[in-house]
Amino acid sequence: MKNLRAALLEDVGAGDLTVQLVPADAMAQATVISREVAVLCGQPWFDKTFRQAAPSAMLTWHVAEGAA
Question: How much is the average pLDDT of 20-45?
Fold first, then answer.
């Protein structure tokens, strides 16, 4: 989890243009879809990163870490 802060600073720090797509006070929903066979990895890292950026965010996973 060492790179957690670096990842957030990169995307939010100086202002990644994609951050401006959703206003800070707006609610948004996202879905990640894999078009190829894949294994989910990085769920704990993603959860911790998201909690740092948006503590009130609700995340729903439909597969478990390590699942195909």
Answer: 85
pTM of the predicted model over 0.85: no
**Token match 């894999």: residue?**
34
For residues 24 and 11, give the distance between their C-alpha atoms in angstroms, rounded to a whole number. 14
DSSP string, 4-53: HHHHHIIIIITT-GGGGGS-TTS--------SS------HHHHHHHHHHH
User: How many of the other CB atoms lie within 10 Å of CB of 47?
Assistant: 14
Alpha-carbon span 68 to 66, nearest angstrom: 7
